[in-house]
Amino acid sequence: MQCIVGNLFISVAYSDIYDREYTPQIVSNQGVSFPSDKTRETFVIYISKDIDIGVSLCSRSYDNRSTEHRPFDRRYYEGYRRLDQSRERDRDREPHGAAESYYPRDFSPNMYDYRHGRERERERDDSYRRKGSRRKHKRRRRRTRSYSASSSVSTTTSEIVVSTLGEGTFGRVMRCIDHRRGGAHIALKIIKNVEKYKEAARLEINVLEKINEKDPDNRYLCVQMYDWFDYHGHMCISFELLALSTFDFLKENNYLPYSIGQVRHMAYQLCLAVKFLHDNKLTHTDLKPENILFVNSDFTMTYNVEKKREERTVKSTAVRVVDFGSATFDHEHHSTIVSTRHYRAPEVILELGWSHPCDVWSIGCILFEYYLGFTLFQTHDNREHLAMMERILGPVPSRMIRKTRKQKYFYRGRLDWDEASSAGKYVRENCKPLRRYLLSEAEEHHQLFDLIESMLEYEPSKRLTLSDSLKHPFFENSGTSDASGSKNWEGNRDISR
């Protein structure tokens, strides 16, 4: 289907916006001729079946990390599973949230489902299609494949293939060619024609427009929005095209952690980008490795003879922060629960209110994950999460315990936690004091953990600010033999390239 939307000329196999079970298809024998009016901006859906699917601006569910990401086997204690059910139901009712919050939470009280949200979505979709009218479905597909007599279609033969970069319950992200940018590739986020998703998209657009206004040259490493428009009720947002997320690269590399030099460069960029948000009275609220994307994820491959495995090393550690769907201005309403579980700050769990420091906590968890290849707090339960914090960071401050409304987690001023239970045994055996996770006694490793420790301070008021983080000795240390993580980036102020 081709359509003029304002000054945008769109060419797209339109049914694929609706059909959630997507298989790339070729619309053959349909030539596309573009308007002679060169003032019109043209988006054409990209053209190749062999595209390397290298980026996803969609995020996974808040509490739905894959079992592949767990460094050890895990059996959850039955007694604590139900504690978060009301909290997660409250989260579902929040109208303002990231793409993450769009994922339905279909955990039953008796089991946790670690499958990707996309797989569960497909199961629901299959069920819906079995119940629906096959005739009606076919008619819809036929209609959306057709071209009107007035559309600009030539008789020459060409092929157009729609390529999906990522998908979620909110919609899809497609790889496209933007002719107004000289044929540059872009990412086009297409939102479903559902009001709650459209409203969330409008909120995200508002944040992205503010970022563009404050950082027109894209110096502060937040993903750049090029444009947005409404197409047949679908909100569409175009972004710069990025590569794999730092999580996806880690996953494809069998969770082999990044080198200390690579961690340093990514940490500096992350602190710089989020400091920019905080300076402009914004809290991201959903920082995690999935929402930090490489500009280019090309890598070199080496074979480790000792460990008998191939290992990838990313060539460039330039990154961008993405997914501002749950970013919140200081003056706006603050939802009770924010952040993906594993990166959620204690003040959020205890419902003490949150602000910029909750992003700093998330960054501390992210740096740990980059360094070791697995999450620091691998749990789906509030009480267990607090027990892990105490095991790794020490006891929760008494002031926070006195102030919280969540007294059910405490007894006589201490965490109410049964260390003799199966969950207690799990925490005791698989969590240890933070410094015991060090892989080396080298100074730069201790400096990294000093930075992480300062970011994981319980009290938000005592937590390290990002302004101070950028001055931390860890970023002054150049003693690394890792070329891709060396301090060459510091000599060039354009650290994003």
From TrEMBL:
Protein kinase domain boundaries: 159-475
Listed GO MF terms: ATP binding; protein serine/threonine kinase activity; protein serine/threonine/tyrosine kinase activity; protein tyrosine kinase activity
Enzyme class, UniProt record, top EC level: transferase
Residue ranges of the region described as Disordered: 83-153, 477-497
UniProt keyword Transferase, yes or no: yes
A single cellular component GO annotation: nucleus
Domain of life: Eukaryota
InterPro entries: CLK_kinases, Kinase-like_dom_sf, Prot_kinase_dom, Protein_kinase_ATP_BS, Ser/Thr_kinase_AS
Keyword hit for Kinase: yes
Binding residues for ATP: 189
Family according to the record: Belongs to the protein kinase superfamily. CMGC Ser/Thr protein kinase family. Lammer subfamily.
Protein name as annotated: dual-specificity kinase
Organism in which the protein naturally occurs: Cyprinodon variegatus (Sheepshead minnow)
